[in-house]
Amino acid sequence: MSLFEDTYRTIEATYEGIFRDKGSKFIAYVYPFEDEIKLKDVIAQLKVLHPKARHHCYAYRLTPDRSIFRVNDDGEPSGTAGRPILNVLLSLDLTNVLVVVVRYFGGTLLGVPGLINAYKSATQIALESAKVIEKTTDDIYELRFQYLQMNDIMRIIKEENATIREQQFDNDCVMQIAIRKMNVNTVVGRLEKIEHTKLHYLKTI
Questions:
Q1: Is 161 left (phi over 0), alpha (psi -120 to 50) or beta?
Q2: Nearest to 99 by CA among 18, 14, 172, 3
Q3: For the CA atoms of 14, 18, 19, 22, what is the dihedral angle to 10 degrees?
Q4: Which of 11, 28, 150, 162 would give a disulfide with 130, using CB separation of 3.0 to 4.6 Å?
Q5: CA 100 – CA 46 distance, rounded (Å)
Q6: Are 141 and 179 in contact (CB under 8 A)?
Q7: How far apart, in whole angstroms, are the C-alpha atoms of residue 170 and residue 155?
Q8: Per-domain residue ranges of the chain
Q9: Over the stretch 139-186, which tens digit does the pLDDT of each residue have?
Q10: What sign does the dihedral 32-174-199-164 (CA atoms) show?
C-alpha cells in the first residue's frame, strides 16, 4: 500500500462455491476475516458441518496493507491447496478474507496439477458470487475528555466524518473513534486543541 493509498478491497459477507472433479467434491467457503484468533472456530464449525470430509484446507490474507497471510494444505501434497487458494486472493487484490476449501475424496487421485486446479477453481467460483466492497483504512484512537467538551468533540467528529466505535459517558468521557488515514493529521490536530482532551492511538484497521 502506497503512502497515499488508504482503501482496500474485501468482501461483504460469507459465500460458498462447489467444484467437482473425478468424484471428488471441493466446497469453498469465503469469509470476511480480520482476527486470526477466530480461525480455529471457523475450522471447528466446518468439521462439524462436514465430518466425513478428508481435508479442510485454507488461506487467508489480512490487514489493509496486505502484509499478513497464511496457507495450510491440511494433508494434501505441499503447495497444492493453500497456495492456489491464496493466489486467487492475490489476483483479485483482496484482503481481510479467509477461504476454507472442504474436500470430499471421490476415490480417484487427481495428481498435483489436478489438485491445484480444483482448489483454485472452487475458490474462484465462491468469490465470483461474492460482493466485493472497498473500505477505507482507518486509524483507531481512544479519546478521553471532560463532559463539558462534549459538544466541541461531537462537532469535529461530524464535520470530519469520523466514526464512533465505542463510547462511555460520565464526568470523564471515553470514546473510541475511527479516522480515515488520509484525514488523521487534520482531525487529531483539531481535537488536541480542545482543553482537557487526551488522544491515544490504538491500531489501524
A1: left
A2: 14
A3: 140
A4: 11
A5: 9
A6: yes
A7: 19
A8: 7-134, 138-204
A9: 999 999 999 999 999 999 999 999 999 999 887 899 999 999 989 999
A10: positive
Q: What are 83-106's pLDDT values in tens digits?
A: 999 999 999 999 999 999 999 999
Q: Which CATH number fits domain 138-204: 3.30.70.260, 3.30.565.10, 3.10.129.10, 1.20.1250.20?
A: 3.30.70.260
**What is the crossing angle of helices 111-128 and 82-91, to 10°?**
40
What pLDDT score does 14 carry?
A: 97
Can you give the pTM of this predicted structure? Answer: 0.79
Domains 7-134 and 138-204 share a fold: no
